[in-house]
């Protein structure tokens, strides 16, 4: 397995790119740890597949280099990079048996037959197809075929990385959960370097140790699920992670005083927002308290979502979402307060920390 270096990677599909808008990937400069499980998460068109294809070697970046364990592999083919890939739709040989499909990548590399047998049987157990080993892949369900694809990706133990491009799209919801848990277990057991593309936040947060959030051709944050929740580096991460997403309110800052509409609150530090065209305060709905005290809000709707209520309200001329306990009393003349430690300040969409 390999440590992956993305060294100043940029990619444009068209010729003669001039501005940032011409790039499907703007500058990406990161180190990914050997044995890490990374999920690339972001909306359609943000560049996830482009980045994955650059890592696998299906695509040559317009600029920059990619290194595996310090070795430049930018000009190498997928095969020479020694990478396993699992795509959105199954890629298997219909006329071969399930067993032979799984054995294929091993036999191809000259692995001795007793070892092939041991690993194929182990993989058949993991993907729960032991009873189907002798069956031809033709005629199996889409679920079963995709399980074979996953098995083919995971059966080798000599690959530098395993790349997954939305592999669970065709899998039914219950099996999705089972396979995701199995992938996680396999990752713990074998320490593969895994890169997993998805636009589904639940899938990313349950699978990965590190979630790489992409937006508009950029990586806007790489963090653990907790970091993405508590300290979104960019307002997009705040919106995209969490349900409902973070409240982002236009604000003015003078020293450590924040004004939102006619309301003011004090921070225990003075964020440096000098030169910013747009300043915003971000607060997750989970950290807004509602009661009789605090800054006044006008409630527009209350949604019951089981153990919680989502209160939709208007605060200083802006819509705001508040998560309240199921049995919380919501007065008609309500006020809100923000948990001080959960306030984030943004200058032109990027978080300004205490450190400045
Ligand atoms: N072969 C191509 N030629 C030209 N433009 C492309 C090509 N492939 C992708 N793009 C453009 O590059 C940008 C990034 O696309 P990419 O497929 O990497 O995004 P994505 O995040 O994987 O989206 P999705 O989740 O829809 O697959 C998009 O604007 C897309 O239209």
UniProtKB/TrEMBL annotation:
<dbReference type="InterPro" id="IPR040582">
    <property type="entry name" value="OB_MalK-like"/>
</dbReference>
<dbReference type="Pfam" id="PF17912">
    <property type="entry name" value="OB_MalK"/>
</dbReference>
<dbReference type="InterPro" id="IPR027417">
    <property type="entry name" value="P-loop_NTPase"/>
</dbReference>
<keyword id="KW-0547">Nucleotide-binding</keyword>
<keyword id="KW-1003">Cell membrane</keyword>
<dbReference type="InterPro" id="IPR008995">
    <property type="entry name" value="Mo/tungstate-bd_C_term_dom"/>
</dbReference>
<dbReference type="InterPro" id="IPR012340">
    <property type="entry name" value="NA-bd_OB-fold"/>
</dbReference>
<dbReference type="InterPro" id="IPR047641">
    <property type="entry name" value="ABC_transpr_MalK/UgpC-like"/>
</dbReference>
<keyword id="KW-0997">Cell inner membrane</keyword>
<dbReference type="Pfam" id="PF00005">
    <property type="entry name" value="ABC_tran"/>
</dbReference>
<dbReference type="GO" id="GO:0005524">
    <property type="term" value="F:ATP binding"/>
</dbReference>
<protein>
    <submittedName>
        <fullName>ABC transporter ATP-binding protein</fullName>
    </submittedName>
</protein>
<keyword id="KW-0813">Transport</keyword>
<feature type="domain" description="ABC transporter">
    <location>
        <begin position="4"/>
        <end position="241"/>
    </location>
</feature>
<dbReference type="InterPro" id="IPR003439">
    <property type="entry name" value="ABC_transporter-like_ATP-bd"/>
</dbReference>
<keyword id="KW-0472">Membrane</keyword>
<dbReference type="InterPro" id="IPR003593">
    <property type="entry name" value="AAA+_ATPase"/>
</dbReference>
<comment type="similarity">
    <text>Belongs to the ABC transporter superfamily.</text>
</comment>
<keyword id="KW-0067">ATP-binding</keyword>
<dbReference type="InterPro" id="IPR015853">
    <property type="entry name" value="ABC_transpr_FbpC"/>
</dbReference>
